[in-house]
Design brief:
The chain is built from 15 helices and 18 strands. The chain has 518 residues and is of the alpha+beta class. The protein has three domains: 152 residues, FAD/NAD(P)-binding domain; 209 residues, D-Amino Acid Oxidase, Chain A, domain 2 (2-Layer Sandwich); 106 residues, Alpha-glycerophosphate oxidase, cap domain (Helicase, Ruva Protein, domain 3, Orthogonal Bundle), CATH 1.10.8.
């Protein structure tokens, strides 16, 4: 990231490196503001790498009458599909239906609304479907003969955050990972913030402070003396990754007896991603969340109930992950799964704070935040009439002497955008081959270590790439070659590498393997 000054004067300091913080930094820097973005851990390390990877309106929120939220999210879905087709892809969902579940008329009405609440230019309309005519339908219970189909979109959430942060940096923002905001103080005209990180202590003097700290937003609000506009509720969602369960490109939405839904999504070619759960997070944010035994059993039972031929056991679980979503609390006593995903943005004495929201609406959240930032920055006259979009990026031109197949080229284009050509050029012989059992190229490791602010092995294997979620034991068998590729790029000596490897193995066992108990 280069040498960082010990004092930085800026227009806006954004605290939090998830999708909201990265989106706000990108928008603000793109409009000419001087921006510092600080994240106490890694980009997208928490909530924003632990989602179901969907760009969607939120079909289930219609049942809770959150029509405004769904309309806004559907509109954003269309914008993102148009502007970033290299990283955001259409995905069709099949919803098996049987007597005893939500009535068919209710589902048809909900899907009609879902199709028409916002303009729809890229995705087909929903409708009934004969499940036995689909490639995956053969595995369903006999009672599931018909169902419904609708479309949304898929994105790698952590990659989206990284691309937004890198775009902010390209527009002049200073992006600081592994850098904690430990103290903030307000005087008559600015905020003085003390940041502690790998580069030492940095003092930031900012005209405006944006609190995008997600689950930690409450503690920062407490430190600044500004209370939340609305109470927040921490809701944990967990997922499991298993080998690919179904033929064909479709995902499943599975209705559960308790009224909740579970998604089963195609994931990274050879896998299926299953989730999510919705539970109140009771442990506080001092400990990283992890899946419980009860959650594993719930997700496995959801699959087994509708796909009895699968005969899943714990041995089929490749990895797990869990994240905490800070949602705006609704009525007291309501189930976590019934909470909406609206966002709230408010300001107080030079502070702008965000609560709630969805991955899909990050651009709209950024625009709402900047409308309040504008009040703190006299003389800044940007009209703020639209959110910036990602410019569509064409496939890179590959030199004739480089051997990369069409599927790998599409993958690198989707994950790295404008940097795909440079990644291919930097690859050593054999590094454009796939890592066994995955769609990932060895060259992706080299590129991430060289260019994407990797500070720890976790950053590399769990977020820049997904090897830690796609390979059993977090990819331990491949660590020798990963070390050969990445150690020179990272500049770590043997002692440093050994320490990182030991920490990674411990972390993976605790948070991404199967739990031993609750």
């Amino acid at each position: 990231m280069g040498e960082i000054a010990k004092r930085i004067d800026c227009d806006v300091l954004v605290v939090g490196g998830g999708i909201n913080g990265a989106g706000i930094a990108r928008d603000a820097a793109g409009r000419g503001l001087s921006v510092v973005l600080c994240e106490k851990d890694d980009l997208a390390q928490h909530t924003s790498s632990a989602s179901s990877k969907l760009i969607h309106g939120g079909l289930r929120y219609l049942e809770q009458y959150h029509f405004g939220l769904v309309r806004k999210a559907l509109a954003e879905r269309e914008v993102l599909l148009k502007s970033a087709p290299h990283i955001i892809h259409p995905l069709r969902f099949l919803m098996p239906h049987a007597p005893g579940q939500r009535p068919a008329w209710m589902i048809r009405a909900g899907l009609f609304l879902y199709d028409h609440l916002a303009p729809r230019d890229f995705l087909p309309a929903s409708g009934a479907v004969a499940l036995r005519a689909t490639p995956a339908g053969a595995a369903l219970q006999p009672q599931f003969v018909r169902g419904f189909a609708y479309s949304d979109a898929w994105v790698d959430d952590a990659r989206l955050v990284v691309l937004a942060a890198l775009d902010a940096r390209e527009h002049g923002a200073t992006v600081l990972t592994r850098t904690r905001c430990v103290r903030v103080r307000r005087d008559a005209t600015r905020w003085d913030a003390e940041l502690h990180g790998a580069d030492g202590v940095i003092h930031v003097h900012a005209r405006c402070l944006v609190n995008a700290a997600g689950p930690w937003a409450g503690s920062l609000l407490h430190d600044t003396g500004a209370g939340p506009a609305r109470p927040m509720r921490l809701v944990k969602g967990s997922h499991i990754v298993v080998p690919r369960l179904f033929d064909g490109p479709d995902a499943f939405l599975l209705q559960q007896p308790d009224g909740r839904i579970v998604f089963a999504l195609p994931y990274e070619g050879a896998f299926t991603l299953v989730g999510t759960t919705d539970l109140d997070h009771e442990d506080g944010m001092e400990r990283e969340p992890h899946i419980t035994r009860a959650e594993v059993d719930y997700l496995m039972a959801a699959l087994q109930a509708q796909f009895p031929q699968l005969q899943l056991t714990d041995d089929d679980v490749v990895s797990t992950y869990a994240g905490v979503r800070p949602v705006i609390a609704g009525k007291e006593g309501g189930a976590p799964s019934q909470e909406g995903r609206e966002h709230a943005v408010w300001s107080s004495d030079g502070l702008v704070a965000i609560a709630g929201g969805k991955l899909t609406t990050f651009r709209a959240i950024a625009l709402d935040a900047l409308r309040l930032v504008k009040h703190q920055l006299p003389g800044w006259d940007d009209p703020l009439d639209a959110c910036p979009v990602f410019a569509p990026i064409p496939l890179p031109v590959v030199p004739d002497d480089v051997d990369v197949d069409a599927g790998m080229l599409r993958r690198l284009h989707g994950r790295y955008g404008a940097c795909a050509a440079a990644l291919i050029d930097a690859a050593r012989p054999g590094e454009l081959e796939r890592i066994p059992g995955t769609e990932t190229a060895w060259a992706e490791l080299r590129w991430a270590a060289r260019s994407e602010a990797v500070r720890h092995l976790d950053d590399l294997l769990l977020r820049r790439t997904r090897l830690g979620l796609l390979l059993r034991d977090g990819g331990a068998a491949h660590l020798p070659r990963i070390r050969a590729i990445c150690q020179p790029e990272l500049g770590w000596d043997d002692v440093h590498w050994a320490r990182e490897e030991a920490a990674y193995r411990t972390h993976w066992t605790l948070h991404h393997g199967l739990p031993h108990d609750d």
